[in-house]
Amino acid sequence: MAIEVASLPLPASADPSKFVDFGKEVKGIDPGNLTDDQFKEIQELLYKHDALLFRDCSLSPEQQYALTKRFDPASENYGHGNNKTGSTVKSILHPDLKTIPRVPQVQLIGNGTVYNHEGLATANLKHPSHTTFHKTQVSQIDEDAGITRYYRWHIDAALYDLSPPKVTTLYGIHVPHGKRQTIRYDDGTGDELEVPLGTTAFVSGKTMFDLLSPELKSLAVRTKVKYAPHPYVWMAPARAMPTGLGIESEGRELPLEELPPWEESKLKVLPVLWKNPVTGNLHFQVHPCGVMELLVEPLPQGAKREGALYPDGAHLTDIKEVRELLYKMQRPAIAPSLVYPHDWKEKDLVLFHNRGVLHSVVGAFTKEQVRAFHQCNLAASDDPTGPTADDIKKYA
Ligand SMILES: [Fe+2]
């Protein structure tokens, strides 16, 4: 049977003109048993459309790991490393992940208590919620009325020592059904988005770049981000913005000298824009919570200086300034009409181009609502590539 490709079911809130290339449902193929030719086709589809949905599939943890690895055969370890104890014990990611003993690259994530699951006798899962991460919280009355927030917009990546995974695979095993919720942005805009319970929200990094003014495009194309050492430990005492798009600057981050041992050479300095290996498009790929500094290259010779930001280049180390600049560039792309909130069904497999989208956990479950997903991504064998000389010439 030939591979059949259909559009993703967009909610009424989405602006279809902004989702022409984003997301496809793939039919007529078993993602756990792809031939080489089929895999090549899937790989190309993923880089062209950034998210692929397979419905009603059966996928063992072994098959999920093998599928994920095929996108980067030299990769081997989970995106945050296979050993999540020791130096990362204080990391904010620690409570959210349980490793499948047989296949340590695959994590069990979700909510509630799961018994006898793939070699885990009992797993107590907790769906991450804004209440433990944001500076402010939705009131109990509003929460009872179905109001919620994005938890944290991010790229799946350790952002220290390891390279950002190319692809993440998410497989829904138990999906609780419940009332839809409304994401409130709580940032003074009045923005809201109604979503299915426990949705995963995606936005396109390409759209994030395309929306920018020429001045901000010029800045983005010239800028690299320096991430903090052990960023998830560093940010653990800090609190996030109500949109989940970065951290409030309150000076709460762990001082660098109190972090687990780290080396300058293992810090991640990555371009703001990552080049799509198939389409050549530029995707604005910044994990705003982990950023410490920005390094801006001067304008290239011959570029128009009028109105240009940091025409002579800059090394921005004031964290408040860094965060405000990034927020200004990233916030437009999480507008309600630009978000794809996936409506999970049991046995859904979603593959997403982790170097082309940002995503967020959403919503809150009760303890009784049991959710079990398998997630896999692998620290990549290389770092993402930034803009080419031609891109810089075009946008700077
Ligand atoms: Fe994630």
TrEMBL record:
Domain TauD/TfdA-like: 22-375
Cofactor or coenzyme needed: Fe(2+)
Source species, domain of life: Eukaryota
Keywords assigned by UniProt, alphabetized: Dioxygenase, Iron, Metal-binding, Oxidoreductase
Pfam families the UniProt entry points to: TauD
GO MF annotations in UniProt: dioxygenase activity; metal ion binding
Keyword Oxidoreductase among UniProt keywords: yes
Family, similarity comment: Belongs to the TfdA dioxygenase family.
Listed name of the protein: TauD/TfdA-like domain-containing protein
Organism listed in the record: Jaapia argillacea MUCL 33604
